[in-house]
Amino acid sequence: MISWPNLVSQLFNGLALGALLALISSGLTIIYGTLGVLNLAHGAMFMIGGYAGFVTYQYTGSFILAVIAGSLFVMLLGVVMERTIIRHFYHRPHEDQLLVTFGLGICFVEIIRLIFSSQSQIVPPPALFQGITNLGFMFYPTYRLAVVGIVAIALGALFIILYRTRLGMIVRAGIEDSVMVDSLGINVYRVFMIVFGIGAMAAGFAGIVNAPVVSLTPGIGDDILVQTFVVVVIGGVGSFPGAILGGLIAGEIISVTSMFNPGYAYVMLFAAMTIVLVVRPHGLLGVQGRE
Amino acid sequence: MLKQRPFLIETLTAIGLILAPFVLPHLGFAPNTVNRILVWGLFGLGFDILFGFTGLLSFGQSAFYGTGGFVAAYLLTRAGFSNVLGALVIGMIAAAATGYLIGLIALRRTGIYFAMITVAIAEVFFFVEFNPLSDFTGGENGLPGVPTPSFNLGFTTLHFTDGWSLYQFIALCYFIGVIIALRIVRSPVGAIFSAIRDNPLRATAVGHNIHGYKLTAFVIAAAYAGFAGGLLGVLQAFMPPDAFTFDTSGQLVMQTAIGGRGTLFGPLVGATVWLFLQDFLQSALGLGAAWKLVLGVVFVLLVCFLRGGIVGGLVDLYGLFSGRRRKVAEREEREAEAGFALEAPPAPMQAKEVQHPAYSGPILKATGLTKRYGGLVANSDIDFSVDQGELRGIIGPNGAGKSTFFKMLTCEIPPTSGRIVFEGRDITGLKVTDVCQLGLTKSYQVNQLFTGLTVRQNLTIAALAELRGKFRLDLFRSLSGVKGLTEQVEHTLALVNLTRRADTQVAELAYGEKRRLEIGLALATSPRLLLLDEPLAGMSPRERVETVKLLKSIARGRTMIIIDHDMDSLFELVERVTVLQEGRVLVSGSPEEIKTNAAVQEAYLGGVHGEIAA
Lengths: 291, 614
Fold this sequence. Notes:
Chain A has one domain. Helices cover about 75% and strands about 0% of the residues of chain A.
């Protein structure tokens, strides 16, 4: 039976998941928009963010340090990955880019499995957000509420970087036409590296923030990656607002369907994606002509 | 090369499959491992047609592998069906039908979108199998008790139980799979698959319905996957639910890339490497779970440094040795032929038969043609008419809207307003493919060739569009079985003077040769109206003279419209000239009139400023 408190709490879950998906997807989508590379290792980077935070938490016991370390580590990983491998693939066909990032993703997952085994690891929520909050009409885990806030702040920060800074202006120009940006005397390859770092950091940040909600396993990024794809297809590739809108839609669909039958969550998500593809092939907020 | 000997690959495959049970045990392969390799190899045959040949990278093949497998297994275990082969075929058909429906959705987009959508679809299948359909599929328990095949031949019963006995059955299936795949790859459809991988835009422009062909490749891959999935159940006497996982799709992609895409045997080689390494690393080296990391690293290195995978690498190596010998022979041949370089030009090629013999008005008539991009008006209210057999030139300063005008005439872009009538038929709003099939095509300003293929293959693809129509499923016909194809290709080769370069890769051609091939591609579709967008651009003076000669020879019996900036050549060639300026028709007339026209001179010599001031 559907009860109102149950529905509302699922809507909240959907919001938390949606915000998280929005953050991860914006990382994926700005990388694709600027560099033209779809990073299939993005899910693995989400996972590594969680583990890097987990290790930091083990040593320091500080959740804030864990978040910082998780994000920075994945950003560094992204920059190294771009410098050593991805940059050699800018002029190769899309299939090769997909293959190499797919392979890297598998390597990342297996390295983590080797170090931490397949057992699940737990990062507790910070003391401030532990327990349950009384919202008046229902009780809700405090940390999940906090996730919505934390992710909203992160998305806001990403928005400011993209829309209010010089770097962001260059990145957005690069999404439009990276050849032109290059010929204006801006070192577009350095911008690419920074964008890859920022995009990876978004995934890593989401990974550690999400860690207290679920337990960490090496395969945690795989499901997220698939959901991220749906988000990007719904929202439109290369569109930051599209990623946010798509993320929220996908999050709510998954949560609300799960209330009735979790087995249908993906079916509904897929149905939504199909409708978008039929009605608006370029995504809700996507631009025609980018493939 | 290998390709020129008929049935060589088939024979070698048969010999290999027959010898395998005698050789492989000595190399440490268990029969069960060999059987699994063959199932992966069969799965991969279809996938290679999709990915290696057509260039569509799908990460969702597990959906069809699982569908075929579970349909077959369900029939054999729960529905009381006893014919194993029949169940496998039904499973294959179910997978192909699923593939058709999924393809309709996934193929709405290309490139990375396609890859992302296939991933999502495969995930949906996984969840559906586990939950809503778990009554049929056994959920996470799978379906145990799948029987092995036996055939009653009257006098005796053949029963393939396990190990090398079952190998015979699976090897036979694989062999039949190889024969079918080879037929498909060598058919006209196979040629068009590689055209789609190489340059989908041009494949569309020469008159192929590439969406239909992509869907075909997708369904073929799904059918192979479905049959292989059924075999997996037979092989393990159990249909495992993990056939549906993303890992299955991923493993297939990796095996294909490791073995070599576009080779058909790559997936088999990749599966061999994969399963061998898995056994070897896990048991012999005691690496335990780390084996997958090693494979991942091997995979990344191969993608980075050896694009063709293992089979591709071997072919390159073979080419290196045999190529050296061939080059020497080729050079001698070329030197011998150098003396005969100037042959008489061949007779002009016939244009397509006229469909409306009674129609005698202008072959092309455009009225009020306008194209706006937001506030920018590229073409504005152009009225334009060309008579049958006419040779028309279009000139105009840069940015006059000449190429936009051509793109609208060939229906690459729709006009904002206005009508285009070709041979009395309104073609406004038709697709570029259909317009080409009607007999109107163009050669591009920037070369749009199939660069990964040879000159002959390029022209074959264009000629096929004319001879077979825009879509036809002659999957089992050989290219030599297409009537008139060889003649048309040879004739076009002679016409654009590339006969001696016929078997050269396009990437190795000189610029002038590529330019001629660009015209040849348009010619091979036998158009009645041919548009040429700057055919002389970037050519040396000598090449220009030759190309003008070529254009004159193909103009017989054909209507042509030519855009070019080289006015000396153009005025020598055409009968009438239309001048475009700022998206409008400035003036039309004979070359003599245009040369002396004051408005034209002003347009070219800075009169533009006056226009803006006014």
